[in-house]
Sequence to fold (291 residues):
Amino acid sequence: MRGKIIKGIAGFYYVRVTGSGIYECRARGLFRKEKIKPMIGDNVEIEALSEEPKEGNVTEILPRRNSLYRPAVANVDAGLVIFAAAKPAANLNLLDRFLVMMEKQGIETAVCFNKADLAPEQAAEYAGIYRKAGYSAFLTDAKRETGLSEILAFLRGKTVTVAGPSGVGKSTMINHLQPQAGMETGSISAKIDRGKHTTRHSELIRVEEDTYIMDTPGFTSLLLEDMRPEELKEYFPEFREEEGKCRFRGCAHLKEPDCAVKAALAAGRISESRYENYKEIYASLKARKPF
Ligand code: GDP
Ligand code: ZN
Fold:
């Protein structure tokens, strides 16, 4: 049977098989030899050992399209990052750092400003900044389920990692997107935790057939470990548009004369906030400061 690993805890892998449910699986020694460990998001072959309860063995990991390190998940199609338009105010610097990380990993990412009901003008301004940079930007009011059909349209058919600082309404949104999420994860947790203190584990939540979201806990410890400052500009899509138009090859778009990025900034094609955050992130990479 073919399925997808939705959760992994202490040597057990929870594999969702379409039409059959979730199997608690062990991975056979086979993988240890090959030095490849199953991970969340992996598409796998399993052999069922029992149906009541559902248990089996993972026998094969199908080739991965990609794998993210943080959060650790394979076969991600896209990212969705959620901030609030207000309460708490959006930290665009943190948002830009996150987008840089996703660009570096080559994963298409969309931005969502939730709680648009609390600050509609602010929300529209934020969305404008990111649309100008080439991103899809959604405005939502998760509490009243406004704008969620657009989010669902973005997610459909994909495996999407969803991130955002706490308090922005991520749980509210995920609960509305996937009303049966609680049920499904509840049944796994009951089995795993058996009354023990519940620690949070990453998992894939099924929104629809072939549509999964990875609820990514935490947002503060973003590190761009191996990035060279010179590389940063490649991860600002709107800067890439200007690439090759600066006077100097290898222009960092900082103090150089005749810089096309600064010209685009002056002309309003590049947003102030994006450019300021570029400079700030560049400086912190230069100083080798972890974020
Ligand atoms: P999380 O920490 O990101 O998962 O945030 P929660 O989903 O727990 O939401 C935090 C608070 O914001 C709760 O009191 C929600 O009811 C509220 N909230 C969530 N979404 C919205 C929204 O779109 N508009 C408003 N006004 N409040 C919201
Ligand atoms: Zn330049």
